[in-house]
Amino acid sequence: MVLPSGREVLRVLSAYVAERWKLLLDERQRVLRQPHPEAIHDLRVASRRLRAVLDQLRLFQEAKVGGRVTRSIRRLTRRLGGIRDHDEALQYFSGLGFSGLEPLCNRLQRRREREVADLLHWLAKPSIDDAGRHVAVAIRGLANSSDTSAEQALALLAERSLQLYLPIANLAPRVVLPEHDDDRHALRIALKKWRYFNELLGRVTGADTAVLLEQLRSYQTVLGRLNDLAVFEALCARAELAEELDDAVRQQIARQRQELDADFLRLLAQQPLHYTLLL
C-alpha cells in the first residue's frame, strides 16, 4: 500500500486525538448523570484510549502534551479502575449463590458508593477542562507543524510499534506457567498498549488491522478474567469468611482459573504472538 504523506498522517492523527478527547468528555457527562457500572466501564476505556493516543504525540516533536495532562488522565483511569473492580466483584459474588456472602457484598457496595461520590466530586472540578485546553494546543500543533515525509512518518511509526511489541516478546516465554501472575498481568497491559497503537495505525495509514486486533482482544479477554479472579481471591482473604464458605469460594475460583489457564495455553499454541507491522 502507499503510505500517506507526512502531512496527511499528522492531519489524521490530530483528528483522532480530537475524537478520543470528545469521547472522554461525552462519557464523563454520562457518568455524572448516572454512574452505573456500564458508564464507569466506558469512561475507563475512553480514558485509556486517550492516554494511548496522547503517548503517540511524542513521536512528533511539534506537538507535546504536558505531563500534568497525562497524569490527570492516569489518575482518572485509576479511580475508575477501583470502582470497576468493585462492580465486577459484586456481580461475581452475587452470582455464586452462596449463603453467607451478603456481608462481603454489602461492604463492597458501601465502598463503591464512597468511591463513586469521590469520583463525581473530582469529575465536576475544572481540571479535566483545563487538560482539554492543553490537548487543543497539541491538536493545533499537529495541524500547523511543518511537513513530514512519508518515509519519516513510516520510520517513526515502525520504531514505536517495535518498542511496544518488545515487552510482549520478553514476557511470552514466561507466561506459560500459571504461578507467574505478575508476568501475565504485565503481558495484559503490554498487549493493551500494542492493540491501541495498532488501532491508531489502522486509522492513520488505512492498513487492515482487523485480524491482529481480534487476536489481541482474545488474549486480553482471557488474561483479564484471570486477573479478575486474582482480585476476587484477594477480597475473600481480606473478608475473613467462615472457613467452610471460604473453602467453597476458593474452590470455585480455582476451577475457573484452571479452565482459563487451559484457554490461555490453547490460545498461545494456536495464535502465537508474532510481531506484525501493518503499514
Write up what this structure looks like:
The protein is an all-alpha fold and 279 residues long. The chain has two domains: 1-147, CHAD domain (Alpha solenoid); 149-279. Helix content is 80%, strand content 0%. The chain is built from nine helices and no strands. It has helices at residues 6-33, 37-56, 67-96, 102-123, 127-144, 150-171, 181-205, 210-239, 243-270. The chain starts with 5 loop residues before the first helix and ends in a 9-residue tail after the last helix. The model has no long low-confidence stretch (mean pLDDT 88). It comes from Trichlorobacter ammonificans.
The SS-based structural class is mainly alpha
Give unreliable regions as ranges.
none
Instruction: Tell me what portion of residues adopts beta-strand conformation.
Output: under 5%
Q: Share of helix among residues?
A: over 70%
Approximate shape: flat
> What is the number of independent domains?
2
Number of strands: 0
How large, in whole angstroms, is the Cα Rg?
21 Å
Classified in CATH, the superfamily of the largest domain is: CHAD domain
State the end-to-end distance.
Answer: 7 Å
CATH class bucket of the largest domain: Mainly Alpha
Provide a count of the helices: 9
Give the overall average pLDDT.
88
What string, H for helix and E for strand, traces the elements in order? HHHHHHHHH
Under CATH, the topology of the largest domain can be stated as CHAD domain
Largest sheet at a glance? none
Just name the CATH architecture of the largest domain: Alpha solenoid
Pfam families: CHAD (PF05235)
Organism: Trichlorobacter ammonificans
Protein name: CHAD domain containing protein
Domain CHAD: 2-278
